Amino acid sequence: MKRQFRSDNPRRLQRLRDQQPPGKNGIDYVEIASADQRSLRVVCVHPVTDITRANVRIDGGVRITGIRLAQDPVLAGNEIRITVDKAGDFSWYTLSLINPAEPDAPAPGFDICLSSIRINFKAGCPSEFDCADATTCPPASPPEPRLDYLAKDYDSFRSLMLDRMSQLVPEFTERSPADFTLALIETLAYVGDHLSYTQDAVATEAYLGTARRRTSLRRHARLLDYPIHEGCNARTFVTLDAGAAAEGSVLPAGTTLLALADGGAPVRRKALLDELPLPGIEVFESLHDQILHASHSHIAIHDFADPGYCLGRGATSAALVNTPALALAPGDVLILEEILSPVTGKPADADASHRHPVRLTSVSTGHDDLTHTDLLLVSWHVDDALPFPLCVSHEFEHGGAVVKEAIAVARGNVVLADHGLTRPWQAMVPDTVADDGPAGLRRHWRPRLKDSGLAYSAPYDHDLATSTAMSASAALRQDARRARPSNMRLQADDASLFGDQPDPAVAAWTPVRDLLGSERFAREFVVETENDGSAWLRFGDNRFGAAPPTGQRLLARYRLGGGTRGNVGADAITALVSDDAALKLGIVGLRNPLPAQGGAEAEALDAIRLNAPEAFRTQERAVTTEDYARAAERHPEVQRAVARLRWTGSWHTVFLMVDRRGGRAVDEAFKTELRDFLERFRLAGHDFAFADPVHVPLDIQLQVCAHKSYFATDVKAALIDTFTSGQSRNGTPGFFHPDRFTFGTPLYLSAVVAEAMAVAGVASVQVKRFQRWGRKPNGERDAGLIGIGTLEVLRVDSDPSFPENGQISFVVEGGS
């Protein structure tokens, strides 16, 4: 069986055949002429001359390649009979007649397109299929209708379809809304309008720069590792004035406290909760249980029989009068408050800024034998050190007599409260988890809360705060980006009880920022807030977070509020809502001595679009030692840090040297806190270790000449106060305050001289010593500089008991 392989360009072949007079030659077809598939008959359009073995080339093949002619071709009229050295395989080959001098050109006299042809050596093999080539002709394309592709809404879609109907059915003139065809057109126009809007919305929400929905921006920002925040509620300390009837009573966590525009009554009825929220009323709730004691409402501070006694700036301890007996313990919060003006002695003139909360760290009893006063000696967290001097007592003249009066007191019965109103357990919309869809695919169950304006707050653990003696100021600080829906939980409905009642036997669902770190069985969900304040819930897919069981009815408990409106002023919270008779009768009054703080609005959409693309510039992973140092400096108590990476035998260890603010020691408690802070930055395979910075004590002596109009002792006292390592008398840090010097900060002699010359009464300064303590001078005074290494920190404590910690002395001459 022979098969002809014809040209793939029959039209060009026919034109070449019809050309008169004859012009170029071309291959008409090729036949496999022998059973061994080695003989080929090449039939051309016109007679062939001057074709040799060099003019014939066979390319292609998969298994058998490199086919060559076994002998010179035989020319017979318009035929070329060739014999090859081996038969080809089942793949396609290309037979070409070429110009040996230029292999890419056709043989002399041959057409460029018809000088080659595809062949198959296995054409003669038996086959059960049709030998004809299968050709698929493209279907005939109907004429494209003239459509307006700018149609985007209902009216334009309706007009477009009516115009098309007029073209297809010219006799269609019905325009009655009751006509079936017109009703169908309008239905399709409605569907088209809906699909067009959806298409535009999807295209708009697909990009960070054009998205309009808050949920879309939240998800785009998350891809850039930028967590947006939904705002935060405000917090404040509230102190309660408890009477004898409230002695030992417990103010439970979640008690409602009200900030009323008109002051209001101290205690309100419980039924008022059903009417909230109301205009002019801001709702706060206590975050922990608080045991009330009548003796804690007004605690006197002992003045040690000194009519002008004051607690200095930076004080961290005090003596309280323990009559009647106080029940204070470490972890309790007191508020130190100025109640009379030390100048006029009038309550109205008291400085409202002289109110400060402190968290007690130690409590012990004592006794003043001179005044026969029982004392309770208390100390508080160093972060709660007094930021101002607090006068305790003062003598005033009343009616010709000098009377000593208390200027400041301590307030107990302090409870931490934050802004927001807890809503009772209620169903969501829709309230039941949807059934599985077709092919076992779960429909997306995205329920919505019935109320809008969800309150967000940073987590607070009262037991942890009291056990670790968290400072009172730290309890008030909140990071809006760490805030989560306040006190929000989801619980399965108990079908055996009437109404919306949660089933305590079923594990609760808790909110998280995202589900990327959730395990497959974790009962966690994400709250996505829209522009109108509505809150939608998103659950896991049993891979990242668990999916709620089909058919389950979930109830939600959450709080409403938050934002800047919760930043009420001092003494704004004056009412309490409770049905407890002991609280109603025993609480005389309540107030917040300090204004509420921390309330923030949700991040604006424009701010998200602006800040999210820049999030990658903030390094959130510590790779180099510089990254570890910069990450440590994000801690509010770290002024400067230096890191070094060492191989410790089994793994790499990052040795971190920290310069803590205020010159405080890097103790074990702070190391633990800083280690936890840096854990999220740590690179896998790196361990942490802390090394102490290298302190460089200095030895400086200045000889000062005082003006004749000043006393030399006053000038020297002013110099010592100026160069102190603590706070100067005017409340500013001294020249050698630890926060002014950190790793690698040198000391210039010119700065020391300039600081000394700025002191009133100094006429001239001469430098006697300017060197490192305990070492011989190394030219520092002549160079005017004490250089410091990258791991060294200057230190000049000027403590006579510890001269090895550095000192600066003054020799003052002259003066009056």
Question: What does the model show?
Answer:
- Keywords: Membrane, Transmembrane, Transmembrane helix.
- Residues 1-26 are annotated as: Disordered.
- The protein has 816 residues and is an alpha+beta fold.
- It folds into 6 domains: 4-124, Immunoglobulin-like (Sandwich); 161-205; 298-412, no CATH class; 425-452 and 479-560, no CATH class; 619-690, GMP Synthetase, Chain A, domain 3 (2-Layer Sandwich), CATH 3.30.300; 694-814, no CATH class.
- Helix content is 15%, strand content 30%.
- It has a 7-stranded mixed β-sheet with strand order 13-37-12-14-26-10-38. A 6-stranded antiparallel β-sheet has the order 16-25-19-20-21-18, with no helix packed on it. It has a 5-stranded antiparallel β-sheet with strand order 1-2-3-6-5, with no helix packed on it.
- A hairpin with a 2-residue loop joins strand 23 (393-398) and strand 24 (401-406).
- Helix 2 (154-168) crosses helix 3 (180-205).
Short description:
The protein is α+β, with helices and mostly antiparallel strands and 816 residues long. It has six domains: 4-124, Immunoglobulin-like, CATH 2.60.40; 161-205; 298-412, no CATH class; 425-452 and 479-560, no CATH class; 619-690, ANL, C-terminal domain (GMP Synthetase, Chain A, domain 3, 2-Layer Sandwich), CATH 3.30.300.30; 694-814, no CATH class. It has a seven-stranded mixed β-sheet with strand order 13-37-12-14-26-10-38.
